[in-house]
């Protein structure tokens, strides 16, 4: 190689590239690998390594360049594929691909267990690739099902594998306790086991169940065997305590235990100010009990309401509100006055007042009280009397053949009374007395009519013979 002067190419100086590069997927052809000198522009050939293949028509080459480096080797060699493995009743899993160098894992379907290795690698054999392990999935077998006393298997004389079932039945007079059917399953180690123990054939008899204050809704009869059920309900006025359905179990007892029907009790009968019970009752009553009431004196039944009170299931009494209402007295009146009251119902007290110029005569109040089968006022209605100024009457009138007991010139005030009487031989006609009253102008006058004194009949008969004798003497 010359130094200094003009530059010359590597080819002109006779320089050589280093040995061709090594790549993962291919190797130098045997022809080119043995060379010791690689001048510029020389091209070497590559062939795919075992486990790889060129899937194109291009050649794998590398050329020594002017700068004494090799051109890149094209990655035309691809890993060969082992393809999907055949594993009936199972499957395989992989994380990359199925090409040379890949690893897969095997799993079996439910009911099968893997025989062989659980994984395989795509490896080279000669110039080809294959999976280095090919396990298979075997159906999980179970041992013969257990036999039972006083019963037998149905179709039990065969081989059993996972998922197959066997059914038991009991001889006559025996009850099958447990599951009648068990099936072939698998444990955590993929060994075949039966899903449960074989049932038993037993003689089961439960007593006839009876619940006080209750009755059966289903399961009627007197003999009960395994798994027979009975349903109960309580009589009215009672609450079920426990389960309403019981089952005859293998130990000859009822499960859950027989229920109880507890009485639902309301407390003492309610009291009302307006009504009373028609009959006596105790301190408690069963739910559903109906009590009848009657209205107390002074009250009457309200329209559309019931006087029957019922004990409810929540231990309370149900009643229509105010089913008896107070009776009403007839409204009182007072002339020249007023009646003061909010209403005229039983036990109401009314007050009477008079208008100005009048004075109340009688009781100033009255109360609506019981009277017979109804109500009435406990006092007669008062009246309002006119208040008059000082009134004086003149001397009482005189009458023929009679006198009065008034003093002449005396003071005869309003209301004064004088009495008349007749002289002998005369009879009083009319009222024997008159009183001092007022006229429309509030002046004092004597009441009318004034009585009269008339000759009596016996006096007239005694004088007639005398008159007749005098008449004859004059003749």
From TrEMBL:
Alphabetical UniProt keywords: Disulfide bond, Repeat, Signal, Sushi
Domain of life: Eukaryota
A family per Pfam: Sushi
SMART domains cross-referenced by the UniProt entry: CCP
Disulfide bonds: 234-261, 393-436
UniProt-listed InterPro entries: SEZ6_CSMD_C4BPB_Regulators, Sushi/SCR/CCP_sf, Sushi_SCR_CCP_dom
Keyword Methyltransferase set for record: no
Alphabetized SUPFAM superfamilies for the sequence: Complement control module/SCR domain (SSF57535)
Span of domain Sushi: 15-79, 80-139, 140-203, 204-263, 264-326, 327-386, 391-455
PANTHER family: PROTEIN CBR-CLEC-78
Protein name: Sushi domain-containing protein
Species lineage: Eukaryota, Metazoa, Chordata, Craniata, Vertebrata
């Amino acid at each position: 190689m010359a130094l200094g002067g003009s530059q010359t190419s590597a080819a002109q100086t006779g320089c050589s590239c280093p040995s061709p590069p090594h790549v993962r997927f291919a190797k130098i052809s045997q022809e080119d690998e043995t060379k010791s000198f690689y001048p510029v522009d020389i091209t070497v050939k590559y062939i795919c390594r075992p486990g790889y293949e060129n899937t194109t028509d291009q050649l794998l080459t590398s050329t020594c360049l002017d700068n004494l480096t090799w051109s890149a080797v094209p990655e035309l060699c691809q890993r060969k594929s082992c393809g999907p493995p055949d594993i009936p009743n199972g499957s395989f899993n992989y994380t990359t691909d199925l090409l040379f160098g890949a690893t897969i894992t095997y799993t079996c379907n439910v009911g099968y267990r893997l025989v062989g290795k659980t994984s395989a690698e795509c490896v080279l054999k000669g110039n080809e690739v294959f999976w280095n392990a090919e396990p298979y999935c075997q159906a999980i077998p179970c041992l013969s099902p257990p036999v039972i006393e006083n019963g037998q298997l149905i179709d039990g004389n065969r081989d059993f594998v996972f998922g197959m079932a066997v059914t038991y039945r009991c001889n006559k007079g025996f009850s099958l306790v447990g599951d009648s059917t068990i099936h072939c399953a698998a444990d955590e180690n993929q060994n075949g086991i039966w899903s449960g123990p074989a049932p038993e054939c037993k003689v089961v008899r439960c007593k006839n169940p009876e619940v006080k204050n209750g009755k059966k809704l289903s399961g009627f009869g007197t003999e009960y065997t395994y798994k027979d059920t009975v349903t109960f309900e309580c009589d009215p006025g009672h609450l079920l305590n426990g389960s309403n359905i019981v089952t005859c179990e293998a130990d000859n007892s009822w499960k859950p235990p027989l229920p109880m029907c507890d009485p639902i009790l309301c407390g003492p009968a309610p009291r009302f100010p307006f009504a009373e019970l028609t009959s006596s009752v105790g301190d408690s009553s069963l739910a559903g009990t109906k009590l009848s009431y009657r209205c107390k004196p002074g009250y009457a039944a309200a329209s559309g309401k019931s006087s029957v009170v019922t004990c409810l299931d929540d231990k309370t009494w149900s009643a229509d509100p105010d089913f008896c209402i107070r009776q009403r007295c007839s409204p009182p009146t007072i002339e020249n006055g007023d009646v003061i009251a909010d209403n005229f119902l039983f036990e109401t007290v009314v007050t009477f007042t008079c208008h100005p110029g009048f004075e109340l005569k009688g009781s100033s109040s009255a109360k609506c009280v019981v009277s017979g089968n109804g109500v009435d006022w406990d006092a007669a209605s008062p009246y309002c009397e006119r208040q008059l100024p000082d009134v004086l009457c003149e001397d009482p009138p005189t009458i023929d053949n009679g006198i009065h007991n008034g003093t002449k010139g005396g003071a005869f005030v309003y209301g004064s009374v004088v009495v008349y009487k007749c002289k002998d031989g005369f009879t009083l006609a009319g009222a024997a007395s008159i009183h001092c009253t007022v006229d429309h102008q509030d002046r004092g006058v004597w009441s009318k009519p004034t009585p009269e004194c008339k000759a009596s009949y016996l006096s007239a008969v005694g004088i007639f013979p005398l008159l007749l004798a005098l008449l004859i003497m004059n003749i």
